[in-house]
Every structure is written in C-alpha cells, then in structure tokens.
Amino acid sequence: MAVTILIPTALRAFTDRKAEVEVEGGTAGEAIAAFAGAYPDIRNHLYDDGGNLRSFINIYVGEKNVKNASGLETPVPDGETVMIVPAIAGGKAPAPDCGARSNDKGRRP
Length: 109
What we know:
This protein has a single domain, classed as Beta-grasp domain (Ubiquitin-like (UB roll)). It is an alpha+beta fold. It has two helices and five strands. The protein has helices at 28-38, 43-46, and strands at residues 2-6, 20-24, 57-61, 64-65, 81-86. It has a five-stranded mixed sheet with strand order 2-1-5-3-4, with helices on one face.
C-alpha cells in the first residue's frame, strides 16, 4: 500500500530536502522502516542502537498518534499520510527578575 510520509524540517537534511515521500507499508512500522531504508542516513535519528523507535519520535497515522493506537502495528490505509513528529524539549529557564520595570523599554539596570 502506498502511503505518504511527511518529514519535519529538522530531518529534511537527510531526505534531499524533501518534505514528503511516498513509500509502501501496511502498518506504521512498515512505512517508517521503508522510509529509513530509502534514506539510510536518517535511520540513526529515528531508531536507537537496539532497533527500536526512539522515545522522542512520535508517529501519526492521519491525525492519530500511534502511541494511542496499536503502536507501530497501527494499520495504515492505502493513500494515508504518516507524519513523523520529533518531540521538542529543552531551552533555558527565564532570566531572574533583575528589577527591570515595564517602562524601562527592555533595558535592565
């Protein structure tokens, strides 16, 4: 079954900048495996050393997160869209209040 994989911007460097590709697969796992097979440089970004999908990678079939369905065994109907969504985390805590007042126009003492 032909399905379309939607590729997030952060991973397009490994897909010749393609935003989507078509692969064959009857389940989410088969589709992602076919995608990784077509673009081997992306494999390490999707799978850990044990061959399991990395915990911060979310896969959607249509609008449903496979983690809330049958996991990678979630069926993918012919012509459906499979979306890869890496979780985003991190950043840094806001700076402590340095006593700046709202009328300081962003200046700090």
